[in-house]
Write a structure and sequence with these properties.
alpha/beta, two-stranded antiparallel sheet, 10 strands, globular
Length: about 450
């Protein structure tokens, strides 16, 4: 079986491309062209595609997408809790979900997640490999990792984060960082390289990994093992040294027929976000950029879904193709059901805001419909069109719960006398009863003035 990339390069429009075209309000040929150019990926493992997967696309020509991370840890969570998180994430609009389980029963959790998920599922294979090695990364051999990638591909994983771009010669660039290497996968590979004084085995096994990915059409998500984990470390030499390698790996992945996207930072101040996105697009030859946040400040533990959504909106506007959500629990603990909901909603707002700014086809229709409903005091329609209808209605009903207030021309914020939209209605009714002056100058006056100006110039 061919990959989406191979089919696109050969001029073939696949079933998945046709589905994506309808979802994106684009033509199938436009989708094919973007996939062939490497600017778009359709994460659709053949195994998952034969099951519940509903094809979607990640790329600058498509709507800005969001990913939600779930998964257990060595401390907490089980299959039931992870399936509930999956349901919440998809219900509130996650376009993909990553299973980042690092605890026990990983295989069973992933199997159930893939069987239940209509959206693409991503993983970081080194986590399960490490668990099976007993937690000692020094014991890893390249074949251990190759075997794990193939194992997860056979399960139906649609895309995998693999840290191939972090090289032995990059490590000295991290020694003066405030927060060092904050990527779990990146830190594990760094430790292995230091223990063995050898080059990154994932980098050296890249072609073999491509062959596995191609068999199942697993999309590369080239991991940013040296992403900055603090504002102080943003846009440093280590980050960009790895990015240069990732750009070269993008070309190698296309040469071997595989789809690829690239992961990005991290913690970036607002004034550096546009530069980072543009630099990645240039260095990585247009491959879709998948960014974590970025967080624009480090001072708000407990509210990092907000600090990162600010950065995510700016990144999406600049051209990031997918935004990896951050929950209120970031840096503090394993997210629960409510944390997942809050993270997804914050990032749906960020992604939609980016789509509006980039003028993507049809994206403003919902905004306009909700605005019309708001001006018409159609409360039920406002709730329905809201990104979180249940919360919108709950806030309204805290003070005006009776059904009669669902048709009222005011809410509890302004009351019946101070509502500006109701007053505007009154103004418009008055305007219908008597003509309003439209300008201090009549068309005749403007024409005369224009004539006078011509006379003066001549």
């Amino acid at each position: 079986m061919t990959t989406q990339y191979q089919a696109a390069v050969a001029g073939k429009i696949t079933r998945e491309m046709e589905v994506v075209a309808k979802r994106e309000n684009l033509t199938p040929e436009a989708i094919r062209v973007e996939v062939a150019a490497g600017r778009m990926v359709i994460p659709a493992n053949h195994v998952h595609a034969a099951g519940r997967l509903e094809p979607m696309a990640i790329g600058i020509a498509a709507r800005c997408k969001i990913n939600a991370n779930i998964g257990n840890s060595a401390v907490t969570s089980n299959v039931g809790e992870e399936l509930e998180k999956l349901h919440v994430a998809v219900h509130y609009g996650a376009d993909t979900v990553m299973d980042l389980s690092t605890g026990k029963d990983i295989d069973n959790i992933r199997r159930e997640i893939i069987a239940s998920s209509p959206v693409p599922i991503g993983t970081v294979p080194i986590y399960q490999m490490l668990e099976e090695l007993g937690g000692n990364i020094e014991d890893m051999r390249p074949q251990h990792f190759l075997d794990m990638v193939e194992h997860q591909a056979k399960q139906g994983v649609d895309y995998m984060t693999i840290h191939c771009g972090l090289l032995l010669e990059h490590l000295h660039l991290t020694t003066s960082r405030v927060t060092g290497i904050v990527s779990r996968g990146g830190s594990l590979i760094a430790k292995w390289m230091m223990a063995h004084r050898k080059q990154n085995p994932l980098y050296e096994s890249f072609d073999d990994l491509c062959d596995i990915m191609k068999c199942y059409d697993v999309t590369w998500s080239l991991g940013d093992g040296l992403r900055p984990g603090s504002i102080a470390d943003a846009s440093d030499a280590a980050q960009f040294a790895e990015l240069d390698v990732l750009g070269k790996l993008c070309k190698r992945s296309w040469e071997r027929g595989t789809q690829v996207m690239v992961e990005g930072p991290g913690h970036i101040p607002m004034d550096q976000i546009d530069m980072n996105i543009k630099k990645q697009i240039e260095v990585c030859h247009g491959a879709p950029f998948y960014v974590l946040g970025p967080l624009v400040t480090d001072i708000a533990p407990g509210y990092d879904h907000i600090t990162s959504a600010i950065g995510a909106a700016l990144a999406g506007w600049s051209g990031a193709a997918m935004l990896c959500y951050v929950t209120p629990k970031e840096h503090l603990g394993l997210p629960n059901r409510e944390d997942v909901k809050q993270g997804v909603i914050a990032y749906k707002i960020a992604a939609h805001s980016a789509d509006l700014a980039r003028k993507r086809p049809g994206c403003q229709e919902r905004d306009d419909a909700l605005s019309r409903a708001r001006f018409a005091f159609d409360w039920k329609e406002q709730f329905r069109l809201s990104i979180d209808p249940e919360t919108a209605q709950a806030y309204h009903d805290e003070t005006l719960p009776q059904d009669t207030f669902k048709s009222a021309h005011f809410c509890s914020m302004c009351g019946p006398k101070y509502c500006s939209m109701r007053i505007t209605e009154d103004i418009r009714k008055m305007a219908n009863d008597q003509s309003l002056p439209t300008s201090s100058a009549t068309p005749h006056d403007k024409s005369a003035a224009e004539k006078k100006l011509v006379e003066l110039k001549s």
